[in-house]
Amino acid sequence: MESLERLLARYRGLFKQANESTPEGGVTDFGERWGLFSVIVSMSELHNISINEATKLGAIEFLNWWSYMVEKEDYEKNAK
User: Fold this and answer.
1) For residues 53 and 38, what is the distance between their CA atoms, to the nearest angstrom?
2) What is the structure's pLDDT at 63?
3) Quick count: other Cβ atoms within 10 Å of Cβ 54?
4) Could you tell me the pLDDT band of residue 11, with boundaries at 50, 70 and 90?
5) pLDDT above 70 coverage of the chain, percent
6) CA-to-CA distance for 65 and 71, rounded, in angstroms?
7) Are residues 34 and 24 in contact, defined by beta-carbon separation less than 8 angstroms?
8) What pTM does this model have?
9) Using an 8 Å Cβ cutoff, are 43 and 54 in contact?
């Protein structure tokens, strides 16, 4: 099994540093607050499984699908 350091190095782009301060206007970013939960929901919809089943996916499988979804979203944003 891969060490935590190797996993974090491989998937570092998925983890952004949290900004402790509240943005101007006092509104927090939805994606920053609910990012991981949104990914779990998207994963369950992608695989047509329940949220509980999505949380039981293996770490490597989950991170690979998460990477795919992040890169796809970036690609679609840049294609416009």
Assistant:
1) 15
2) 85
3) 19
4) confident
5) 72
6) 10
7) no
8) 0.51
9) yes
